[in-house]
Amino acid sequence: MAAAAPAAGAQSRFEPALMRRKLTGTIFYGACVASIGLLLLALMALLADVLVRGLPWLDIDFLTSMPSARPARAGILSALVGSLEIGLLVAVLAFPIGVAAAIYLGEYASDSRLNRLLQTNISNLAGVPSIIYGILGLAVFVRLLKLGPTVLAGALTLTLLILPVVIIASIEALKAVPNAQREGAYALGASRWQMVRQSVLPAAAPGIMTGIILAMARAIGEAAPLIIIGAFTFVQFVPNPISGQYTVLPIQIYGWAVRPQDDFQGVSAAAIIVILALMLILNALAIIVRIRLSRHIQW
Amino acid sequence: MTSAPISLAHRRSIGERIIERLLFLAVALGIVTTIGIIAVLAFQTVEFFLEVSPIDFFTGTRWSALIKPQAFGVLALVSGTLLVTAIALVIAVPLGLLAATLLAEYATPRIRTLVKPILETIAGVPTIVLGFFGLNFIAPQILRPLLGADNIGTFSALNGGIVVGFLITPLIASISEDSMRAVPRGMREGAYAMGATKFEVIRKVVFPAALSGIMASIILAMSRAIGETMAVVLTVGTKPQFTFDPTQSIQTMTAFIVQISIGETAQGSLEFKSLFAVGATLFVMTLGLNLLSGWVVRRFRTVY
Amino acid sequence: MTVETPEAPARDDAGDDRAPAIRITALSDREIAAETNAPEYVIELQDVSCWYGSFRAVRNVDICIARQRITALIGPSGCGKSTLIRTMNRMNDLVPSYRNEGRITFDGQDLFARGVDPVAVRRRVGMVFQKPNPFPKSVYDNVAFGPRINGYKGNMDELVERSLRRAALWDDVKDKLKQSGMALSGGQQQRLCIARTIAVQPEVILMDEPCSALDPRSTLQIEELMAELKRDYTIVIVTHNMQQAARASDTTIFMTMGEDRAGYVVEEGNTIQIFTNPKHRLTEDYVSGRFG
Fold this sequence. Notes:
The structure holds three protein chains of three kinds. Chain A has two domains: 38 residues; 234 residues, MetI-like (MetI-like fold), CATH 1.10.3720.10. The two termini of chain A are 51 Å apart. Chain A contains eleven helices and no strands. Chain A is globular, with a radius of gyration of 26 Å. Chain B is mainly α. In chain B, a hairpin with a 6-residue loop joins strand 1 and strand 2. Chain B is globular. By secondary structure, chain C is of the alpha/beta class. In chain C, 33% of the residues lie in helices and 26% in strands. In chain C, strand 9, helix 8 and strand 10 form a beta-alpha-beta unit. In chain C, helix 7 runs parallel beside helix 8. The longest helix of chain C is centred in the middle third of the chain and has 14 residues. The chains are: A mainly alpha, B mainly alpha, C alpha/beta. Chains in contact: A-B, A-C, B-C. At the A-B interface, helix 1, helix 3, helix 4, helix 5 and helix 6 of A face helix 1, helix 3, helix 4, helix 5 and helix 8 of B.
């Protein structure tokens, strides 16, 4: 293996054991590949199981009917509408507040101690379990503000949940805008807000929009906080956005999955297919938005 | 004619200040949220502790909120949570680190475009779907055939641990990968130049240098696992018990909170109030771990 | 260590345009050795070209590295000196798009032959880099790193001390062996890197601009070190600093970049000759400071 025999006597005190070392390296590499393989396998098994169980139950009736005590007639219309209502409400609420907070932290407050404290606070909030937000929402929106277990209360709660994530993503998007843009605007006599609005925000828009869409996808996938707030698992009417009781897709999935009958597992799987499709659409949307908005931006 | 510029400036600065106030309001919401969480949990927990002694709560190992006789020893729930978390880490740490190493050290750009979506997809799947997978596939098709249908039921800590482990692997993988990529090229070249194999460079130079980030990722993953709800609610069961046997059906703190909320429990009852006490315990645990992970990075970071 | 005999050649004829811009301090024993000993070549490059993908970085190089001498590789930036030196210990293998043409031999054997493992090569051909790159480990562990992975069977403490002494670092760190290697000053870090390189007892030490990130005093220390090390090791040094090449080396190779942006060797020869009486116009222009 070596290019030539060892030259001097001192060399022979080394025992490089090259073959053994290379073998260990190869085994390690194999383990790395195997781990990815295992993850991929698990993912595929999950999709296969869901598709096999759920596809037979997936038809137009399923999408357009209400849940029923009988699996054959069960549908996810109420859950689907609930999810879409909550998703849109959350996006609409989180967008201005999240971007405003990010602008303040990124552009207005300089790197002061206060700023760092605020950012630490937001990082901590991002790490709080979603169920805690449910408890907060229960105490504040449902009871204190007397909103009751409605879509509005749910949307407000989920907005608080995803706000830290939106803020962090927006701050990153703002940071990515080169300072030259800001200096150029200032040099033309712009005030800070004008500079932000005309120069920085348009440049950071792709990143911000992507962040919002992904956060929206996350909110649609959440069940625990809404359960705490009082979303129901058996809602047989289309939820009224402000005053009505409601349910969402993840909770409906849960409601069916806890029933022992195989048929309900099938219906639950069908609902899973719907929510996964929704996630796929949202992620694709995020990518499309990013590409289309970035086209106008060249540094 | 000379007065016009002055009034323009005056108007702009008031507008500017209003905008600045509005923007600050948005940030203030973050502070209000934190205070809100702490206040709600604190008040309700104190109310709960008026009826149940804190000592019984924190040291008791029997938890029975809905079935008489009532007992509120939170250690039963905490042990369930920690058991699931421990199993999850046993799975996620090796898988996550191996995946991270592949991405940081071995992967060509082509491999990266294939592997990263796998991790991102796992991270993006709603957790209830993972719980469903545990309930309908892992338990009946893998665990029970492998370990024997008499030894393990449909609901078990092991089932929950596997699902949660799968869930948190992308977290460990992505943060650890970033840490490893941050190790400068010059340091690796120095090791190669002395006749080190690639595995030795990874093991003896990259890993030790990236260690603080890797540790932080594990701590964060642990915090995430502790706070996980929907994936465990379908897989571990509703039997709070103080045990370290993974084949047992148990209940985690999060699953208990869901159970109480979803049921017909009266809102003023003791059982209902226990929800807040458990929530407070959960909050303190996860917050502690999140702060710990930040401290680990600051304290042990390798300065290049 | 060196006998300084101020030589006249640089100021010989008044107003001679061909006089180089720098003074040479010649070592009389060096001159003698150059004339009477036929040097052995430890590394030979025959018609070597280096490619990164479809870009040729180095073109048709034919050079020989003499055993236990200091060979300097000089030339303007970007002309492929680093690429060339990195072929000698197969460091370029780490770049996925890299490939070689031509023949490179080490001790008479083809470096890129089928059965040759780059890992084995790198223990025998060591490298010191431009930016000192000690590991974030203790000084001791930095030096012991190479011997440990290469299965050193002797007394490690003694090897570490010996290597640090030869790198003229022992006195500075002997009470601080457990301290982090990164806590040393720039010049000390570079000497640490030299110490750990010689701890695996290579035959050749490649140095890629080892002093360019250092202050003048550390630079001089390292040049003195090189002269010492020449007794046991062959040294190849890439340098931007012409005075350094003139001061410290026995053989000089001058490279430049051609119109196709590929580097090529213009001239190779005895250092004194290159700097006082270069054969090529380009060489003369470079060493007299007219470009580069």
